[in-house]
Amino acid sequence: MEVITYSLRNEQGRSDEYYRDIAAFADVALHEAEVCAGPLVTEFRSFLQATGREEPRTRAEYALELLALGVLSRVYGPRLPHLGRGEHGALTLAQLDELLDRLAAADAFEQEVTRLRAWRDFWASRPATAAELHSVRDLGTWFEGAGLSALGRYTPNVERFLAETHPRYRGRHDQVLCGRRRVEYHLNMAGVEILNRAFRPAFRATTRKLVLVPPCMRAQPEESCRATQSEFGAQCAACTPGCRIHQLTKLGEKHGFAVRMLPDELRVLSAGTTHGLGDAQAGVVGVACALTDIHGGWELRALGVPAQGLLLDYCGCPWHWHPAGIRTDTSFDELLRILS
Fold first, then answer.
1. pLDDT per position as a tens digit, 174-225
2. Which of 219, 189, 174 is nearest to 328 (CA)?
3. Is 3 inside any structural domain?
4. Do residues 189 and 64 lie in contact, with contact meaning Cβ atoms separated by under 8 Å?
């Protein structure tokens, strides 16, 4: 199998070992975030309650946001015209503003920017900004090294792709998405695991389940696929027995979940809809590649939809990664574990 940037299978044909590794690494990352920034998370939650900005979320979600800020400030911060290392290598509040503006302009970090602007307003309300931003930057430094050690074998070709293939993406709409650095793959992998843990109680409380899969998993090209359109994404018509979406649909019939291809807009799944599955709102499992799944999780949470994320074992769609397209796949065993 051609590995374009990442593969969860690690030359084993299965991704079981990856899921053991990512669970262990998420434990380590959350512990490190608590050590470095535990009191900061506590104060931030109090700030949100006092200002009425949002209902408090789990500590793990805020820890992930700080990990994201630490990583993104290292990856994108040095490219800003006026962004150097401040005192002790930390960002200043003004430089953080520049970083967030740059990310917002890139049109690929909407969810990150939405969450990090709340942190920016929190830091603007207090005097200890410099030291705290320094600790967040240090957290990003730690994550880069630890993530490479724990997950690097699942991202073997990212640097080669960036050096040899990505230069041809100049001017394309997905230039920023496909140009993400190796540490960003690791951040998103850990992020999916962390968000799954945070969202799991609400997901488990739902009585019906909907699995959303990308069209790159189907066996037939778009013009030959007979899937029928529905309000919440295309539904498999069982035209090709060997199609993984067909097989997943049959598995759903056995285990009591529905399968649809991802709709163009996730907002059709907003809280209060029935997903065509009866009277109760469904919990959603979103299947996507390593660079996009976490964004879907954040977006669904904002829409009030209980969700879980599941990664494609590798990327290969013709819209972003491969001119002819490589049919993608995911772990049915891990999906059943999520749904259990």
1. 999 999 999 999 999 999 999 999 999 999 999 899 999 999 998 777 777 7
2. 219
3. no
4. no
Residue 212 CB neighbours (<10 A): 24
Residue 224 structural domain: 205-339
231 and 174 share a domain?
no
Q: Please check whether residue 40 lies inside any domain of the structure.
A: yes
Total-model pTM: 0.91
Ramachandran angles phi, psi of 82, nearest 5° = -110, 10
Task: Show Cβ contacts of residue 164 under 8 Å, excluding neighbours closer than 6 positions.
Answer: none
Residue 12's pLDDT band (boundaries 50, 70, 90)?
confident
Nearby residues of 225 by Cβ (< 8 Å), 6 or more positions away: 215, 218, 234, 239
307 and 277 together in one domain:
yes
Which among 210, 232, 231 has a CA at the least distance from the CA of 307?
A: 210
d(CA 62, CA 209): 27
CB atoms within 10 A of CB 258: 21
Give the C-alpha distances (Å, rounded to integers) separating 18 from 59, 158, 176, 339: 25, 17, 26, 18
Distance from the first to the final alpha carbon of the chain: 30
Q: How far is CA 173 from CA 90, 108, 293, 314, 321, in A?
A: 32, 10, 18, 21, 13
Count of all residues that appear for the chain in the document: 340
Burial 193-209 (b: 16+ CB within 10 A, else e): bbbbbbbeeebeebebb
Of residues 266, 253, 256, 261, the one with CA closest to residue 230:
261
Asked whether residue 156 falls in the same domain as residue 225, the answer is no
Structure tokens at 137: 């930057």
pLDDT of residue 198: 96
Please give the DSSP secondary-structure letter assigned to residue 141: H
Q: Would you state the structure tokens that stand for residue 166, as one six-digit string?
A: 């990505």
Q: Which residue has the tokens 């809809």?
A: 273
User: Is 198 among the domain residues?
Assistant: no
